Amino acid sequence: MKSGTVGVAVDHGGFPLKKFVIDEMQQLGLEVSDLGTDSEDSVDYPDFADKLVAAIAGGRVAQGVLICGTGIGISIAANRHPSIRAALCYDEETAVLARQHNDANVLCLGGRKTDEETARKMVRAFFGTKSEGGRHARRVAKMS
Ligand code: RB5
């Protein structure tokens, strides 16, 4: 896997925010793999969670972003896989804490609940923050 390669997958509820989020990630120097969907035609969010899960589990990307309408369904779907720690975040602080305390490897957003400025802050916070380790690493290890 090339260092800095990340994935993005969305359902139709997340599609309107997808390009904005990908542009932000690219501005951070990340190489982005766009895993769809590619329109507002109705699709099933578990199918797109699975695409990112497979890319992470297969070592093709290190981390990623999932977006559905609320962020809820796609985060539930992703978290069924043991190697995924998908964090549904709603502001800059939760995106920072998802990395510092939970070592989250997937940022989940609600496309219908998130404005572009907040999405920008969350993407920058998530990909710009490292896990703190220590007691947090112990807790994360208990989930594996
Ligand atoms: C699709 O209408 C919507 O249910 C989906 O995007 C998501 O919000 C589910 O949790």
Explain what you see.
The protein has one domain: Ribose 5-phosphate Isomerase B, Chain: A (3-Layer(aba) Sandwich), CATH 3.40.1400. α1 packs across α5 (116-127). α1 (15-27) links the parallel β1 and β2. 42% of the residues lie in helices and 17% in strands. With 144 residues, it is of the alpha/beta class. The radius of gyration is 14 Å and the shape is globular. It has a five-stranded parallel beta sheet, with helices on both faces. The two termini are 22 Å apart. D-ribose binds next to α3.
Strand order within the widest beta sheet: 2-1-3-5-4
Work out the helicity level.
Answer: 40-55%
How many helical stretches? Answer: 6
Count the domains: 1
CATH superfamily: Sugar-phosphate isomerase, RpiB/LacA/LacB
CATH topology: Ribose 5-phosphate Isomerase B, Chain: A
Which of globular, elongated, flat, extended, rod-shaped describes the shape? globular
- CATH class label: Alpha Beta
**Rg computed from alpha carbons, rounded to a whole number of angstroms:** 14 Å
Bound molecules: D-ribose
Can I get a quick summary?
With 144 residues, the protein is of the alpha/beta class.
Characteristic terms for this protein:
Ribose 5-phosphate Isomerase B, Chain: A, 144 residues, 5 strands, five-stranded parallel β-sheet, alpha/beta
List the helices and strands and how they pair.
Layout: E1 5-10, H1 15-27, E2 31-34, H2 45-57, E3 63-68, H3 72-78, E4 86-88, H4 92-100, E5 106-110, H5 116-127, H6 135-141
Parallel strand pairs: 1-2, 1-3, 3-5, 4-5
Helix pairs in contact: 1-5, 2-3, 4-5
